[in-house]
Amino acid sequence: MTFGERLNHLLANFRHVDESFFDDLEETLIGADVGFEMAMQISEQLRDEVKLQNAKKPKDVQNVVVQKLIEIYDAAGAEENNQLTFAKEGLTVILFVGVNGVGKTTTIGKMANRFKKQGKKVLLAAADTFRAGAIEQLNVWAERDGVDIVKKPEKSDPSAVVFDALKKAKAENYDILFVDTAGRLQNKANLMNELAKMKRVISREVPEAPHEVLLVLDATTGQNALTQAKLFKETTDVTGIVLTKLDGTARGGIVLAIRNELHLPVKYVGLGEQVDDLRPFEPSEFIYGLFKGLIDV
Questions:
Q1: Residue 293: per-residue pLDDT
Q2: Residues that bind GTP, according to the entry (predicted)?
Protein backbone atom coordinates (compact mmCIF):
# COMPACT_ATOMS: atom_id res chain seq x y z
CA MET A 1 0.00 0.00 0.00
CA THR A 2 1.21 3.49 -0.77
CA PHE A 3 1.27 6.17 1.90
CA GLY A 4 -1.88 7.68 0.41
CA GLU A 5 -3.72 4.37 0.36
CA ARG A 6 -2.92 3.80 4.02
CA LEU A 7 -4.34 7.18 5.00
CA ASN A 8 -7.40 6.68 2.82
CA HIS A 9 -7.92 3.30 4.43
CA LEU A 10 -7.75 4.87 7.90
CA LEU A 11 -10.19 7.64 6.97
CA ALA A 12 -12.64 5.40 5.12
CA ASN A 13 -13.79 4.18 8.54
CA PHE A 14 -13.58 7.61 10.17
CA ARG A 15 -16.49 8.52 12.45
CA HIS A 16 -15.09 11.17 14.75
CA VAL A 17 -11.87 12.25 16.45
CA ASP A 18 -11.49 10.19 19.63
CA GLU A 19 -8.88 8.03 21.35
CA SER A 20 -9.38 5.09 19.01
CA PHE A 21 -8.88 7.42 16.04
CA PHE A 22 -5.47 8.44 17.45
CA ASP A 23 -4.56 4.79 18.09
CA ASP A 24 -5.42 3.93 14.50
CA LEU A 25 -3.53 6.97 13.22
CA GLU A 26 -0.39 5.97 15.15
CA GLU A 27 -0.61 2.43 13.76
CA THR A 28 -1.12 3.73 10.22
CA LEU A 29 1.88 6.06 10.46
CA ILE A 30 4.15 3.37 11.93
CA GLY A 31 2.97 1.02 9.17
CA ALA A 32 3.94 3.69 6.65
CA ASP A 33 7.51 3.74 8.04
CA VAL A 34 7.54 7.29 9.38
CA GLY A 35 9.10 5.84 12.51
CA PHE A 36 7.76 5.35 16.03
CA GLU A 37 9.03 8.68 17.35
CA MET A 38 7.48 10.68 14.54
CA ALA A 39 4.16 8.80 14.74
CA MET A 40 3.93 9.61 18.47
CA GLN A 41 4.99 13.21 17.94
CA ILE A 42 2.35 13.77 15.26
CA SER A 43 -0.33 12.07 17.30
CA GLU A 44 0.53 14.23 20.35
CA GLN A 45 0.57 17.45 18.37
CA LEU A 46 -2.68 16.62 16.61
CA ARG A 47 -4.42 16.03 19.92
CA ASP A 48 -3.99 19.75 20.61
CA GLU A 49 -4.88 20.78 17.07
CA VAL A 50 -8.01 22.92 17.26
CA LYS A 51 -8.60 22.50 13.54
CA LEU A 52 -8.77 18.76 14.02
CA GLN A 53 -11.35 19.03 16.79
CA ASN A 54 -13.58 20.96 14.40
CA ALA A 55 -12.91 18.63 11.50
CA LYS A 56 -16.07 16.71 10.77
CA LYS A 57 -15.40 15.35 7.28
CA PRO A 58 -12.66 12.80 6.54
CA LYS A 59 -11.19 15.20 3.95
CA ASP A 60 -10.70 17.91 6.62
CA VAL A 61 -9.05 15.43 8.97
CA GLN A 62 -6.79 14.28 6.15
CA ASN A 63 -5.74 17.85 5.34
CA VAL A 64 -4.84 18.57 8.96
CA VAL A 65 -2.85 15.31 9.31
CA VAL A 66 -0.93 15.87 6.06
CA GLN A 67 -0.24 19.54 6.85
CA LYS A 68 1.15 18.50 10.22
CA LEU A 69 3.41 15.89 8.58
CA ILE A 70 4.74 18.48 6.14
CA GLU A 71 5.23 21.02 8.94
CA ILE A 72 7.32 18.60 11.01
CA TYR A 73 9.26 17.48 7.92
CA ASP A 74 10.06 21.08 6.95
CA ALA A 75 11.02 22.08 10.49
CA ALA A 76 13.34 19.07 10.90
CA GLY A 77 15.06 19.91 7.61
CA ALA A 78 15.57 23.62 8.19
CA GLU A 79 19.38 23.47 8.27
CA GLU A 80 19.70 20.59 5.85
CA ASN A 81 21.99 20.53 2.83
CA ASN A 82 20.93 17.97 0.23
CA GLN A 83 23.78 18.77 -2.17
CA LEU A 84 26.94 16.68 -2.42
CA THR A 85 30.05 18.42 -1.09
CA PHE A 86 32.92 18.69 -3.58
CA ALA A 87 36.50 19.83 -3.10
CA LYS A 88 36.96 23.50 -4.01
CA GLU A 89 39.86 22.37 -6.15
CA GLY A 90 41.63 19.11 -6.83
CA LEU A 91 40.42 15.67 -5.82
CA THR A 92 37.02 14.96 -4.21
CA VAL A 93 36.91 11.74 -2.15
CA ILE A 94 33.55 10.11 -1.36
CA LEU A 95 33.33 7.10 0.93
CA PHE A 96 30.33 4.75 0.70
CA VAL A 97 29.24 2.75 3.75
CA GLY A 98 26.29 0.43 4.38
CA VAL A 99 25.45 -3.22 5.01
CA ASN A 100 25.65 -5.81 2.25
CA GLY A 101 22.64 -6.10 -0.01
CA VAL A 102 21.43 -2.51 0.10
CA GLY A 103 22.75 -1.65 -3.35
CA LYS A 104 25.98 0.08 -2.33
CA THR A 105 28.16 -1.13 -5.20
CA THR A 106 25.35 -0.49 -7.70
CA THR A 107 24.95 3.02 -6.30
CA ILE A 108 28.67 3.69 -6.84
CA GLY A 109 28.41 2.35 -10.39
CA LYS A 110 25.43 4.57 -11.18
CA MET A 111 27.00 7.63 -9.58
CA ALA A 112 30.28 7.09 -11.45
CA ASN A 113 28.29 6.94 -14.67
CA ARG A 114 26.45 10.14 -13.81
CA PHE A 115 29.62 12.15 -13.10
CA LYS A 116 31.52 10.70 -16.04
CA LYS A 117 28.69 11.95 -18.28
CA GLN A 118 29.21 15.38 -16.74
CA GLY A 119 32.80 15.27 -17.96
CA LYS A 120 34.47 14.36 -14.67
CA LYS A 121 37.44 11.99 -14.48
CA VAL A 122 36.26 9.30 -12.05
CA LEU A 123 38.23 6.59 -10.22
CA LEU A 124 36.78 3.71 -8.19
CA ALA A 125 38.52 2.03 -5.22
CA ALA A 126 37.41 -1.54 -4.45
CA ALA A 127 38.02 -1.40 -0.69
CA ASP A 128 35.34 -3.96 0.15
CA THR A 129 37.89 -6.76 0.16
CA PHE A 130 35.82 -8.82 2.57
CA ARG A 131 32.64 -9.82 0.71
CA ALA A 132 33.13 -12.51 -1.91
CA GLY A 133 32.40 -11.05 -5.31
CA ALA A 134 32.41 -7.40 -4.23
CA ILE A 135 35.60 -6.51 -6.13
CA GLU A 136 34.37 -8.28 -9.26
CA GLN A 137 30.97 -6.54 -9.04
CA LEU A 138 32.60 -3.11 -8.85
CA ASN A 139 34.92 -4.08 -11.68
CA VAL A 140 31.93 -4.90 -13.91
CA TRP A 141 30.54 -1.43 -13.22
CA ALA A 142 33.91 0.21 -13.95
CA GLU A 143 34.04 -1.54 -17.32
CA ARG A 144 30.42 -0.69 -18.09
CA ASP A 145 30.93 2.97 -17.13
CA GLY A 146 34.31 3.19 -18.84
CA VAL A 147 36.03 4.43 -15.68
CA ASP A 148 39.21 3.23 -13.96
CA ILE A 149 39.36 1.07 -10.85
CA VAL A 150 42.03 0.28 -8.26
CA LYS A 151 41.76 -3.21 -6.79
CA LYS A 152 43.77 -5.82 -4.93
CA PRO A 153 43.09 -9.51 -4.21
CA GLU A 154 40.25 -10.46 -1.82
CA LYS A 155 41.11 -10.21 1.90
CA SER A 156 43.74 -7.49 1.23
CA ASP A 157 43.94 -4.58 3.66
CA PRO A 158 41.21 -2.12 2.54
CA SER A 159 43.34 0.86 3.59
CA ALA A 160 46.11 -0.31 1.25
CA VAL A 161 43.62 -0.24 -1.63
CA VAL A 162 42.56 3.26 -0.64
CA PHE A 163 46.19 4.39 -0.39
CA ASP A 164 46.99 3.11 -3.90
CA ALA A 165 43.82 4.73 -5.26
CA LEU A 166 44.69 8.08 -3.70
CA LYS A 167 48.21 7.97 -5.11
CA LYS A 168 46.87 7.22 -8.59
CA ALA A 169 44.08 9.82 -8.34
CA LYS A 170 46.53 12.56 -7.35
CA ALA A 171 49.24 11.62 -9.83
CA GLU A 172 46.83 11.37 -12.76
CA ASN A 173 44.57 14.32 -11.91
CA TYR A 174 41.29 12.57 -11.27
CA ASP A 175 38.34 14.72 -10.20
CA ILE A 176 36.48 12.20 -8.05
CA LEU A 177 37.42 9.05 -6.14
CA PHE A 178 34.56 6.78 -5.01
CA VAL A 179 35.50 4.26 -2.30
CA ASP A 180 33.46 1.08 -1.75
CA THR A 181 33.75 -0.35 1.79
CA ALA A 182 32.79 -3.59 3.56
CA GLY A 183 29.49 -3.46 5.41
CA ARG A 184 29.87 -5.89 8.25
CA LEU A 185 27.85 -4.41 11.07
CA GLN A 186 27.84 -7.64 13.05
CA ASN A 187 31.41 -6.84 14.02
CA LYS A 188 31.05 -3.20 14.93
CA ALA A 189 34.47 -2.71 16.54
CA ASN A 190 36.26 -4.10 13.48
CA LEU A 191 34.19 -1.99 11.13
CA MET A 192 34.81 1.10 13.22
CA ASN A 193 38.57 0.54 13.23
CA GLU A 194 38.64 -0.22 9.52
CA LEU A 195 36.71 2.93 8.59
CA ALA A 196 38.77 5.05 10.98
CA LYS A 197 42.00 3.72 9.44
CA MET A 198 40.73 4.42 5.91
CA LYS A 199 39.81 7.96 6.91
CA ARG A 200 43.26 8.53 8.40
CA VAL A 201 44.90 7.36 5.17
CA ILE A 202 42.58 9.60 3.15
CA SER A 203 43.06 12.76 5.18
CA ARG A 204 46.83 12.28 5.24
CA GLU A 205 46.82 12.43 1.43
CA VAL A 206 43.95 14.91 0.97
CA PRO A 207 43.56 16.98 4.16
CA GLU A 208 39.86 17.97 3.76
CA ALA A 209 38.82 14.49 2.64
CA PRO A 210 36.66 12.48 2.75
CA HIS A 211 34.34 15.20 1.49
CA GLU A 212 31.33 12.93 2.02
CA VAL A 213 30.64 9.69 3.88
CA LEU A 214 27.45 8.43 2.26
CA LEU A 215 25.40 5.75 3.98
CA VAL A 216 23.45 3.62 1.51
CA LEU A 217 20.10 2.36 2.83
CA ASP A 218 17.43 0.20 1.22
CA ALA A 219 14.06 1.98 1.49
CA THR A 220 12.14 -1.30 1.40
CA THR A 221 13.61 -2.43 4.73
CA GLY A 222 11.70 0.24 6.66
CA GLN A 223 12.57 0.27 10.36
CA ASN A 224 15.63 -1.93 9.75
CA ALA A 225 17.12 0.84 7.65
CA LEU A 226 16.68 3.26 10.56
CA THR A 227 18.37 0.86 12.95
CA GLN A 228 21.30 0.40 10.54
CA ALA A 229 21.58 4.16 10.12
CA LYS A 230 21.77 4.68 13.88
CA LEU A 231 24.54 2.05 14.18
CA PHE A 232 26.55 3.49 11.29
CA LYS A 233 26.14 6.95 12.73
CA GLU A 234 27.76 5.65 15.93
CA THR A 235 30.66 4.00 14.03
CA THR A 236 31.60 6.82 11.67
CA ASP A 237 30.75 10.42 10.76
CA VAL A 238 28.04 9.88 8.18
CA THR A 239 27.38 13.08 6.19
CA GLY A 240 24.44 12.00 4.07
CA ILE A 241 22.23 9.19 2.85
CA VAL A 242 21.57 7.49 -0.46
CA LEU A 243 18.19 5.76 -0.34
CA THR A 244 17.85 2.93 -2.84
CA LYS A 245 14.74 1.08 -4.06
CA LEU A 246 12.45 4.03 -3.50
CA ASP A 247 10.62 3.30 -6.75
CA GLY A 248 7.46 2.40 -4.86
CA THR A 249 6.59 5.32 -2.56
CA ALA A 250 4.88 2.66 -0.45
CA ARG A 251 7.97 2.97 1.73
CA GLY A 252 8.39 6.70 1.27
CA GLY A 253 7.58 7.40 4.91
CA ILE A 254 11.13 6.31 5.76
CA VAL A 255 12.38 9.65 4.42
CA LEU A 256 10.38 11.46 7.10
CA ALA A 257 11.80 9.17 9.78
CA ILE A 258 15.40 9.61 8.58
CA ARG A 259 15.12 13.38 8.70
CA ASN A 260 13.25 13.52 11.97
CA GLU A 261 15.18 10.93 13.99
CA LEU A 262 18.65 10.95 12.44
CA HIS A 263 18.97 14.52 11.22
CA LEU A 264 20.91 13.29 8.21
CA PRO A 265 20.17 14.66 4.75
CA VAL A 266 19.06 12.28 2.02
CA LYS A 267 21.30 13.33 -0.89
CA TYR A 268 20.48 10.82 -3.62
CA VAL A 269 17.65 8.36 -4.25
CA GLY A 270 17.54 5.22 -6.37
CA LEU A 271 14.24 5.06 -8.22
CA GLY A 272 14.68 1.90 -10.30
CA GLU A 273 16.97 -0.56 -12.03
CA GLN A 274 18.25 1.63 -14.86
CA VAL A 275 21.66 3.29 -14.69
CA ASP A 276 20.14 6.79 -14.74
CA ASP A 277 17.55 6.00 -12.06
CA LEU A 278 19.86 7.38 -9.36
CA ARG A 279 18.92 11.05 -8.88
CA PRO A 280 19.65 13.94 -6.56
CA PHE A 281 16.98 14.09 -3.86
CA GLU A 282 14.47 16.96 -4.06
CA PRO A 283 12.81 17.21 -0.62
CA SER A 284 9.81 19.34 -1.60
CA GLU A 285 9.11 17.37 -4.76
CA PHE A 286 9.30 14.18 -2.76
CA ILE A 287 6.85 15.23 -0.09
CA TYR A 288 4.45 16.45 -2.75
CA GLY A 289 4.67 13.06 -4.49
CA LEU A 290 4.14 11.21 -1.22
CA PHE A 291 0.90 13.04 -0.49
CA LYS A 292 -0.25 13.40 -4.07
CA GLY A 293 -4.03 13.27 -4.26
CA LEU A 294 -4.31 13.61 -0.50
CA ILE A 295 -4.20 17.33 0.04
CA ASP A 296 -5.52 20.39 -1.67
CA VAL A 297 -2.23 22.04 -2.53
A1: 64
A2: 98-105, 180-184, 244-247
Q: Supply the DSSP string of the chain, one letter for each residue.
A: --HHHHHHHHHHT----SHHHHHHHHHHHHHTTS-HHHHHHHHHHHHT-HHHHT--SHHHHHHHHHHHHHHHHHHHTTT---SPP--SSS-EEEEEE--TTSSHHHHHHHHHHHHHHTT--EEEEEE--SSTTHHHHHHHHHHHHT-EEE---TTS-HHHHHHHHHHHHHHTT-SEEEEEE---TTSHHHHHHHHHHHHHHHHHHSTT--SEEEEEEEGGGTHHHHHHHHHHHHHS---EEEEE--SSGGGTHHHHHIIIII---EEEEE-SSSGGGEEE--HHHHHHHHTTTTS--
- Binding-site residue set for GTP: 98-105, 180-184, 244-247
**Structural domain for 36, as ranges:** 3-76
Asked if 64 and 103 sit in the same domain, the reply is no
Examine the domain organization and report whether 66 and 110 are in the same domain.
no
pTM score = 0.89
The predicted-structure confidence for 93-120, as pLDDT tens digits, reads as follows: 999 999 888 999 999 999 999 999 999 9
* 120 or 297: which leads in pLDDT: 120
Last residue of a domain, one of 48, 76, 104: 76
Do 108 and 44 fall within a single domain? no
Q: Per mean pLDDT, which of 19-23, 47-51, 209-213 is the most reliable?
A: 209-213
> 32 and 116: one domain?
no
Known binding-site residues equal 98-105, 180-184, 244-247
Same domain membership, residue 165 and residue 36:
no
